[in-house]
Amino acid sequence: MAGRLIVMSGPSGAGKTSLGRALVEQVEGLRFSVSHTTRRPRRGERHGVEYFFVSEPEFREMVARDRFLEHARVHGHYYGTSREWVTDCLDSGKDVLLDIDVQGARQIMDQVRDALTILILPPSRRELERRLTQRGQDRLAVIRRRMERAAKEVGAYNRYRYAIINDSLKDALLELKSVVGSHESDSGGPVRNTKRIQEVVETFKEAQ
Fold it and tell me: Considering the entire predicted model, what is its pTM?
């Protein structure tokens, strides 16, 4: 039996990577896909663990050889998911979790109709900006660009089967585990706290 493809997206700072890695640690048989990127490693990041760090010419060559299941340019850098690695895992019966941006998620949705798609949202625009500022990884101009992009990303929530608000990492992880554990591709429509999700989206519209 083939494995399931789980696609998780969210604005930078929403906590999707932390949630994804915690989920992989707690769910047996779930593999975390490591993306290729042309950006430089941040402090503490290791090649082949957080990302495969490659040069832009190397990345372009992989695109030309159709090596990526999805790829996109995000915040001035390229990111991509290895087609061969994901296919091998799924064919061997392992579930695969992709932590990718909204652009990449749309590419996956077009190719894999039964993928489980989850959007991770911050509790508000103000909280997202606070998180980005507090982590101290980016200059102010970069944070502004991330916030502008986040407004578009949260607005795409209705393209996903599930949306989870990461107000508390512990609570969001419990909800994420529940979604992954109970999901079936033919289960019907999405399950969301629609009113709460719309309230989050409105906080981004108010600032525009």
Answer: 0.86
